[in-house]
Amino acid sequence: MKFTDGLVNSYEKYAHERASHSPDGFKIQERSEFLKFLKTEARETLLEIGCGPGWDAQFFQSQGLRVFAVDNTPTMVKLTAEKGIAAQVLDCYDLEQINERFDAVYTMNCLLHIPKRDFDRILRLISRRLNENGLMYIGIWGDKDFEGIWEQDIYEPKRFFSFWKTEALLEILQRSFRLEYYRRLEPHEGRIFNSLIVRKRMEV
């Protein structure tokens, strides 16, 4: 049994509730910032990791990108596919099963469920799915040092979270990627959101 099985159980339970809400305004704004990068560089293909009910995948597809979306929660993938998006049930630990490379990767609040011991490994898996000079957007809550089941979580079963201090997050990201954009947001009092666009480092 993977530790992610508990996450899948939580997100299965709340999938339709999450699908009933559009993305927060600050997330829509940051998504649009990433689109500017993609348009400027004439990017054509995008992999979304942790697609949820498919709102972001639908947006990028509507902007002319060819989108492939993955999530480890079957109901989320079903909701995404119903929006006309190519989608597959796949855990981010299994990204090597994708036999394609993409111009860009988008992941919104997915990597905050990855244990710190595995974070570098997941970043390398993502990098291998990117074309040369590919771009990745990461949106992730953080700027605190925490790892474990979040006891204040309103979901049942409660979810595993891994929060990074911003300096540590930037350091580990820049092992595999070059930082292109960083914005620190506080959309809710006392809650910091890190918005980042990074570029794949040249393979050697």
Task: Write a compact overview of the structure shown.
With 204 residues, this protein is an alpha/beta fold. Helices cover 35% and strands 32% of the residues.
Report on this model:
With 204 residues, the protein is an alpha/beta fold. The chain has a domain at 23-44 and 55-64 and 92-200: Rossmann fold. The chain is built from six helices and nine strands; from the N terminus they run ααβαβαββαβββαββ. It has helices spanning 4-19, 25-40, 55-62, 74-81, 116-128, 166-176, and strands at residues 45-49, 66-71, 86-89, 102-108, 130-142, 146-149, 160-163, 177-188, 191-200. The strands form two sheets. Strands 3-2-1-4-5-9-8 form a seven-stranded mixed sheet.
Ordered list of secondary-structure elements with their pairings:
Blueprint: H1 4-19, H2 25-40, E1 45-49, H3 55-62, E2 66-71, H4 74-81, E3 86-89, E4 102-108, H5 116-128, E5 130-142, E6 146-149, E7 160-163, H6 166-176, E8 177-188, E9 191-200
Parallel strand pairs: 1-2, 1-4, 2-3, 4-5
Antiparallel strand pairs: 5-9, 6-7, 8-9
> Which CATH class of one domain is shown?
Alpha Beta
User: What percent of residues are in strands?
Assistant: 25-35%
| Secondary-structure class | alpha/beta
**Which blocks of ≥5 consecutive residues have pLDDT under 50?**
none
CATH superfamily of one domain: Vaccinia Virus protein VP39
N-to-C terminal Cα separation, in Å?
36 Å
Helix content: 25-40%
Question: With helices defined by DSSP (H or I, 4 residues minimum), what is the helix count?
Answer: 6
Radius of gyration: 16 Å
Shape: globular
Oligomer: single chain
Spatially, the strands of the biggest sheet line up as: 3-2-1-4-5-9-8
**Largest sheet geometry:** 7 strands, mixed
The CATH architecture of one domain comes to: 3-Layer(aba) Sandwich
Instruction: Give the averaged pLDDT, no decimals.
Output: 95
Strand count: 9
Query: What is the fold named in CATH at topology level of one domain?
Result: Rossmann fold
Q: N-to-C SSE series?
A: HHEHEHEEHEEEHEE
